[in-house]
Each structure stands twice: as C-alpha cells, then as structure tokens.
Amino acid sequence: MKELFDQIRITDLDIDLTQASPEASGFQRLYLRLSGEPPPEWVSLFEEKRRFPPRPIWRNAWVVGGHIAIDCVPEELEQFGLNHLKEDVANANNEFLESSARDEADHLREFQKKQATRKQLEEVRARLKFD
C-alpha cells in the first residue's frame, strides 16, 4: 500500500537561490519552494503539462528537488505566472491522485484474482485422492 500523498503547493519564492538566467538574457531564474519534494511520477505529470505553451505568455518551468524553477522577469511571476503555476501544480496533484487510484484498483483486482485462483486450487487439492 502506498503512503498517503500530501498535495503539493507552492509556498514561497526562494530569494537565496535566485540568479540571472543562464539561458534567457534579461530574465531571472526564480525558484519557488514547494510544500514537499514531489514523487517522480508527479514531476513527470507536471513537466509534461508544461511542455507545450497553453497561454499567450508562457515561460518554461521545471521541478528541481523541492522547488519549481522558472526563467522570467519577476514582475511576470507576480502578474500572472504564479497563478498559472498554481493551476499547473493543482492539475498535477489531481492527475497524480487519479493515477494512484487507478494503480491501487489494478493492484487490488490482481490480488483478488490471485486469491480466487488460490482458493480454487485449494478446493481442487481437497478433492484429490493421493496415495
């Protein structure tokens, strides 16, 4: 059984990690602290959704440990970027929970199938006459 998933949230701007973007001139690489380090499956879901620009003004963002990194002008983050990232984090949370529920249901069905097979074999064994 998997441990309980605490939904990920953006909790702060990590000013100490902020630096000039090495890839985008004039931008800052901002690090937003998360409420916890997300599992790899969650990271994949988040980054997959961020792969294609869904909005007119869009900046790439990715997960680094317990942070989301984004290259942008700080005012962009304030005006709309943070809200977009919060929405993407919420979507990743929902998809992760749905995926986990499907996985748990699959595991339960497989367990029940094995149990039924075992019970059937035990019943057959009880009817068999060995020397």
Integer count of domains: 1
User: Major beta sheet, specifics?
Assistant: 5 strands, antiparallel
Structural class: alpha+beta
Percentage of residues assigned to helices: 40-55%
What portion of residues belong to β-strands?
15-25%
Mean pLDDT: 89
Run of helices and strands: EEEHEEH
**How far do the termini sit from each other?**
42 Å
Radius of gyration: 23 Å
- Characterize the overall form: rod-shaped
Oligomer type: single chain
Put simply, the count of helices is 2
Uncertain residue ranges: none
Number of DSSP-assigned strands: 5
Q: What order do the helices and strands come in, and which of them pair?
A:
Elements: E1 10-13, E2 19-20, E3 28-34, H1 40-49, E4 61-64, E5 67-72, H2 74-127
Antiparallel strand pairs: 1-3, 2-3, 3-5, 4-5
How is this structure best described in words?
With 131 residues, the protein is of the alpha+beta class. It has one domain. The protein contains 2 helices and 5 strands; from the N terminus they run βββαββα. It has helices at residues 40-49, 74-127, and strands at 10-13, 19-20, 28-34, 61-64, 67-72. Strands 1, 2, 3, 4 and 5 form a 5-stranded antiparallel β-sheet that branches. Helix 1 (40-49) packs across helix 2. The radius of gyration is 23 Å and the shape is rod-shaped. It starts with 9 loop residues before the first strand and ends with a helix. The relative contact order is 0.15. The mean pLDDT is 89.
